Amino acid sequence: MTVTDTPIPATETAALVTPSTRRLKGRNKSKKRPGAGTYILILLLTVFFIGPFIWLVLAALKTPAEWASLPIQILPEVPQWNNFVRALGDINFLGYAGNSLFLATTYSVLITLSSACVGFGFARLRAPGKNTLFIVVLATMMIPQILTLLPTYVLFSRIGLVNTYWPWVLWGLAGSPYMIFLFRQFFSSLPKELEDAAIIDGAGWLRIFTTIFLPLSRPVLITSFLLMFTWTWGDYIAPALLLDLDRTTLSVAITAFYQDPNGNTIPTIQAAAAVLYIVPVLLIFFFAQKYFVRSQVSSGIKG
Prior knowledge:
By secondary structure, the protein is mainly alpha-helical. The chain has helices at 10-16, 19-30, 36-60, 64-68, 82-89, 93-124, 130-139, 149-158, 166-174, 177-188, 193-200, 205-216, 218-233, 237-242, 250-256, 267-298. It has 2 domains: 10-80, no CATH class; 84-298, MetI-like (MetI-like fold). The chain is built from 16 helices and no strands.
């Protein structure tokens, strides 16, 4: 006895199509691909954001005469690659870059760990007034940094910390309100069973934080380090205020040096130095961007 396939009548096929199936097909048909206007808008935004960097690179390849020419000459006639060589050789570029790297790394590591610790406390520990204190911490983000410059300088001057790197250590240990917020949101989204199981096993809060919650927060840790490193690497005001020219960072050195014998600034050499100054940050963000996006998404999971 053989089994043969028989065609299903059209009436029975139509019966298999339920109202929900029709709605799904309608939704799929209603989804349209982005139009040309969307792509044009994305292209314009891309040019708007990367345009200044492209202009900086072109300026680094010009001669001083092409830089000052009127009307503005966009493309250099002959690229001056020697500007990058002079940017590295006219000053102690690597020495100042080492100062920036040391300050940015030290500050970023300390502020990431301190913010993670505070964020864990706000997310998992119970204490009276915790929510009010968290609001106060977030409110400090509204204070402009320019208002605290003079009191900060006076304070560090009186305790003998001017022209040292200790201010960045103290700032790192104090934590960042925004990073505290990110860590608090991330730790709040983790299931409570994790800490309950650890408490049953006899673990204390410090061990729970260091062995369970901290390893799970790798995307936020990388994002915090990336943001704080970028901010410190590009900071000009604090190094110019607290450090002399021997211990200062690369951002201050680029603006203070690169002068001709008459004391006039050479803008093309400065532009070449600025391009070299930006490259490390771009590389760091390129390799860590997936963690950055993941942490920004996870920060809104649970309030």
